[in-house]
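Box 4.2: Ligand-aware structure prediction
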Amino acid sequence: MGSVALNGKCFAFVGSRPQGALCRAMLTLFVFLAAFAGINCQPVCAAEPIKTLDYKMAGDATHMRIVMNFDREPEPKWFLLRSPHRLVIDLPDATIAIDAKDLKARGLIKSVRYGASGEGASRLIVTSKGPFNVDKVDVLKNEDGSGYRLVADISAASDREFDAALAIQAETTGSTVSTAKTDRLSKIAHRGDRPFTIVLDPGHGGIDGGAEGLNGTVEKSVTLAFAKELKSKLASNSAYKVVLTRENDEFLRLDDRVRIARQQEADLFISIHADTIRLKGIRGATVYTMSDKASDADAQALADRENLSDQLAGVDVAEENHEVSDILVDLIRRETHGFSARFARSLVGELSPTVGMINNPHRSAGFKVLKAPDVPSVLVELGYLSNPQDEEQLRSSDWREKAATSISKAVAAFVAERGVPGG
Ligand SMILES: [Zn+2]
């Protein structure tokens, strides 16, 4: 019986009858004995549940970190729920009180709810925008001695990955097993029977119109029309699955575009744009890939303009640097970068004879929309709306058809080279 008091379970009964009196007596006895034995009984004897001191979350639509501070060490258990995709964290010996402002939806997380799930026990339910992976749920001791913190990291994933995690959960009722990181690598190595998935991303949309041509052509309309044309061209090959990040004139955050690519387990991501440049004489298409250091000043300026999209739409984009310093992620990123560059070269090769290109048509800069570490990604500037001839072409369905055919050929070459179905 002594162990009942020692492991803390006794406290659930404190105040309730008939065990209350017995429990209090045991507690008094234990405190007395502990004092005698010189044991520090602080964590054991507190007659109250563990307190949640605060709750914070940070990140974007692809990665989120949740941090909760506690006065003592909690023993969380977590599990996943579907429809909608949720992470449930049970805290069997803690109470939760969180400032409502800290629960405001952000990034991948759509809502957070919590409540009592028994005497002295609580449950936190985190609802996500879509399927996700639980990268880790850890409890760590705060270095400054102020208690303990729970750290949960989740990242956007596909339904297939979420279902796989649910299946593991069903087998291991303890449900504290997270998907191993190696699964992410094997995803690249073994694609199984999935079709080759291409996500096309029509730039801008909704309140963010993008660039505007001399004759009033708006970038967001050109990019959508072109993406639809390219989709129908690609979809004629049944080995491909083609998905648009947006089908209508709607605003989409940059990280949401990346999230969609990851959700679809995209094998290729093509963001489509048609911007403007100071020099009206400059015309032609350009293919951009991601790099930390821009290839040239113009590429840097363009990436800066494109990355402004979220701010233009009034989205709160407090820069949360979520670069994962993980050797495995770095490896994946490097491999992905190689594929992106290979596809960019293939695109330049196909577009050059049919569609005019600018000088040095393969350039690179830090585009946020190209940041998925595991999806080969390029951004195509179809032409410049600041140039009257380019603007004219971009409005022509014949020209769009021609350019879409060239891009389809580049996709086919890329698929063939990777040796996957559909080549
Ligand atoms: Zn643009």
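In the box above, the bound molecule is zinc ion. Residues 203-204, 210, 219, 273, 275, 306 surround zinc ion (CB under 6 Å).
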